[in-house]
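Supplementary Text 2. Reproducibility record for the structural model of the 820-residue chain.

All settings were left at their defaults, and a single model was retained for analysis rather than an ensemble. We include the record here because the model underlies the residue-level annotations in Supplementary Table 4.
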Amino acid sequence: MLRRLTLGVTAIILAAVALLHIPSGRIAEEQARRALEQALEQNELAGASPLVIETHGLPVRVGELELQVFTLGDLRGGVPPILLLHGTPGSASNFRTLAPAIAGTGRPVVWFDLPGFGALTERHGEPYRFETLSQRSYADFVWRVLDTLDIEQIHAVGWSNGGAAVLYMDASRPGDVLSNTLLASVGAQSTEGSGSYFFEHVKYGFGFATLVYGRSLLPHFGFPAPTPSITGFLRNFWDTDQRPLDEMLSFTRTPTLILHGRHDFLVSDLAAERHHEIAPASRLVMLDGSHFLPFTHTSEITEIIKNHANRHDVPGASPDITSLDLAPLAAPPSVLHSAYLWARDHVFDAPWWLMLCVLLLGARVRPSITSGIAALLVADVRLDIFLAWVGVSLGLGWRADRLAAKLIGAPLVACLATVIPFPLLHFGLRVPNDAVIPLWSLAALPLAYCVLAWVFTNAWTRRGRARLLAGIARPVRHEFWPTWAFYAPLVPYLLWLSIKHRGMMTFACCNPGIPNGGGMVGESKSSVMRGFREHPNALHCVLLGSGAQAEAEFAQHLESLGSFPVIIKPDAGQRGVGVKLARDEATAHRVLREEAGPLCAQRYHPGPNECGVLWHRDPEQPETGRVFGITHKSFPTVRGDGVRTIEHLILNDPRLRMQAGVFLERLGARAADVPKSGEVVRIAEAGNHSQGARFEDGEHLRSPQLEHTINELMLAYRGENGEPVDFGRFDLRYESPELLREGKGFGIVELNGTFSESTNLYDPRRSILWAYSILFAQWRTLYQIGAWRRRSGAKPPRLRELLAWLIEERRRAPARSVSD
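Retained model, structure tokens:
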């Protein structure tokens, strides 16, 4: 279904490309021009004061260019004019409100289009051919225009990318620029996008290739942006070198006003603060606004620019080097928020290659979380939007196992997860006087886009779609919940039990016959099994080393282990990891050579059934015990149809797809086999839930004879120190339910201590409330037994002992395959 949906969407896009590309760009531009003229006409008819623009004599000619220079005020009145330079993309029309406002204060104003923009994109229907559109060339061009107008000294105001031209103008003729104003302006290379000249040029080179040359492949819906404007925008950034601007800011003595919006989503507020630190003769004014201050804060910035110009009409006046913050950051409401602020500002300073690696690895391991965090940082103008897209795309492409997912799906998901959320995160979640996104939104909208990214990441392959369906079903199936989520409700109850029984580790006083807190972590399986003193129901188990030593020891004990098959597993394994079934001697020796020790080899019980039995001593009558719960284990199988592979059958099964990764890793090349119609294929051997076994409540197996047999076994148990056990779960293999209820025909695979649990609580047929009733009762019993042992003189382990066991277990943890 998802594959058909993806193909359908692709077909619609291709149809849109074919049908909507019919209107030419010229027609669309003419439609947009007429719409603009109608809007201006309606504005004037509504009574708004029309914009009056006077031209300075005839059109000005600079080389082969003829341009219209707009002026307001008397350029010959003795007051140095204010020069307004627009950004990229932009045009002289950007100052239709700011220029009259400044002129209204009595200051003459000059502004015009820069090459590649506005009226200087084309002439008589043919685009202009400029050798370069760099900000350095703009500075030369502006001086030539001013010389033509006989203007010797000016106050230069550069908005956005126009600020770079102002700095180049100042560097080339510093005495003729009385003051600089960087209005929401770019500056030092280190504060631009990724901070890297190399990466920024890769970005705009990519944009030029896709938006200019690749534009014919995109549906434009009849309203494409004019190609000359797109070319001018990309070429301006491509041709401009911002690296010299650091030095220009450091060495200029021209009074410089840095006027910036705290919520600027194109040039970070941090960039303005850095420019103020770099420039010794600068003043910083931070407003509660965005990048479009000329439109949103016209009167406010007009007054500030006028005062700055008035102060420096005559060279020699000392510059104002203060800082005025009219949009101070709100105090972080929490430690989490403070940590986020610290992290995001360090992201701004991180080198681009480091962030690329972090995003790539993060998207490969945790694509949804990485996408959400990237979108958040992009919206907060701390991470370059293109860098975020590239990093997430590469990570998802690395993760994907199909070419279509790598080349199409990964970039699409990265766009959905990092680029598209940007305007919503930025414009929708900002609050006044606070440059950071509110605390609640650190998870809200990013989480929504994480879900979207997760869906599109997995929609491209059969395995991915199986993961998607499994993920949708998992929240309502408690047997597959993450450990932290399942045990979270238990934590308050454990705290209460700790207070009631006077110690968090009281439960670890149980099982004096099993080391490491009665079997909390890292206990030796072979050592625990020796406590049964070779009882006929305990499957013989021997400890082995590793490598050649393990092979030699295995040969010595082979006779006592009986005939093949033989179980080989880590001596301190957890959750069935590393358990291997060696069906012959060659396989056994291969496993022993490949696996890191210590290992143990155990006699195999053919079963074919398996169950878990949780037993505990009665704290009120210590000479007796009882079976707390029984878990019936069933092993996963698939039934062949003669057509589909084992992998396909697994992915189609609603339950098996929940653990498809485990099964497919274990099966290896066998996953591609096609079973015969009706053939049943067993896909797991280990009786462990994390390895695929299904756990169900096994009360139907309980009987007085079984309980009597289990009681005798456990009450007779003595560890290597001669001490007994109080609490533990048997893993039993048995021939038939009838024999098991008689207390016969079973073999003990292993005994787990205090951290074992009554695994029938994972029965998918029972409710979550029933599961928690089992879990809470189990821990209540464990603490009661521990308190009884403590009153008898037992001492719980100390925290440093527990940490030492955990570290040792981590060091010896088998990083093994689970294949049989």
